[in-house]
Amino acid sequence: MTANVTLTNYLLLKRANTTVSSTYTGLVGEITVDTDLDTVRVHDGVTAGGHVLANVTQINDSGNLSPVNANVAAANVQIDSLRANITAANVEITSLAANAAAQQIQIDNFAANTGFATLDQLTANINTVNANVGAFQVLSNANAGTQATSINNLNANLGAYQTFANANVVAIQANLGAYQTFANANVVAIQANLGAYQTYANANAAAQTNEINNLFSNAGVQATSINLVNANVTAANTAITALTANAATQAGLINTVNANVTAANAAIASLQSNAAVQQGVLDVLSGNAVTQTLELQLLTSNAAVQAANLTVLIANAVSQESSLTVLVSNAAAQSTAIDSINANIGAYQTFANANAATQATTITTLLSNA
Length: 370
Hints:
mainly alpha, 5 helices, 5% strand, Seminal Fluid Protein  PDC-109 (Domain B), 83% helix
């Protein structure tokens, strides 16, 4: 005969205390168990300790939201600082653009007066500056819109989660408190009624025993005693009737208590269901926090690129200023050279006019000799 053998398989995840778990970097999608926090950690292959998921107790503890709120506040401070830097950069860009426009007018006037070939190089530099200004402005505006959307989504998720959690916790606590008060009040009342009935029955039993003994010992007073007994029985019946009526009332109260217990159980089940929903909301919130961190890193990187572009723009402006100074200096030298040429032409014209008569005489002589 072969005995029945039951084989049981257990799935055990990697597990350790918080000290060890916080230093472990798991594979992407790997799940480990933190035996101190009684929760799991989801790993991404990069972060030491992975990402800790909150359990039901931690979710119901509103204090767990404090670090998230603190991180959001810190991120908002950094975002405001970056926005202020972008605003200041826009002011500088606007100023540079205005200066560039003024310089363009001066260069156009200079080109019209001199026609130098080096104007093409200056024009190319100015076009590069304008292109850099336009690209910087487009990039700043694009990032500002994305960042504002992310902040609004994060604030909306936090507000909805806080409202939902507070509403459910307050409702459940109110129901549990009301049920506890009702149960305590009815238990005390039932115990008081039972104690009073027991005391009453014991007291009357002793009295009835004494009266029966008196009836047997004294036949003459038996009728009176019997009447007294009947009166006591009537009173006992009245008390029993009252107790029976109270029992019906108590049964109704017990049914009400049972109904409240059922409602409380339903509320607890709803709370557990809400805990799962809250876990999903918290996961979304954590995902949004990661997305905001990435966007903040991108914005910081863009700020560095913008700073480099601004440095190049300022350097180009300095170079253009030097080129403009050289051009102005060359214009002054050209004006001096033109004045010298005009003076030489005038002297040559005077000399030619003075020698014209002599040359005519010479020519006439040559023709006559010929």
